[in-house]
Amino acid sequence: MRIFAGIAAALFLAVPAKADFAKVANAEDFKKIVSGKTLTRPFVRLQVAPGGAISGTGARWEVTGQWSWQGGYFCRDLYWGGSDLGYNCQEVRVNGQRIRFTSDRGQGDFADFRLR
Questions:
Q1: In sequence order, which residues have a C-beta less than 8 Å from that of residue 116 and are 6 or more positions away?
Q2: Which end of the chain is more exposed for a tag (fewer CB within 10 A), N or C?
Q3: What are the strands, taking DSSP E only, across the chain?
Q4: In the beta sheet, which residues pair with residue 112?
């Protein structure tokens, strides 16, 4: 069970970084950033489609979900390996080929992904 919890946390949590990230302010900018890209980090590969679908894998388990843009935040409902990771609205920031999602409307933990 500890392994499961650790991998679940790694899907959308990360260690602190000092890089400057610019806030993504609206859905149109977000769609331009993620369109045709795969978001990657160790053991995680995700596609966040402009139409609202999330798909990919996390530690070999399927990741699925839906997203929308609400009040300046990326709001997603996510499932990993059949487990409901819940609904959360996240602040999105970008720095070149890196994108950062910070949970709880920018007040929680964050995860950085490479855009490939």
A1: 37, 38, 39, 40, 97
A2: N
A3: 22-23, 39-41, 44-48, 53-58, 61-70, 73-80, 83-95, 98-102, 110-115
A4: 100
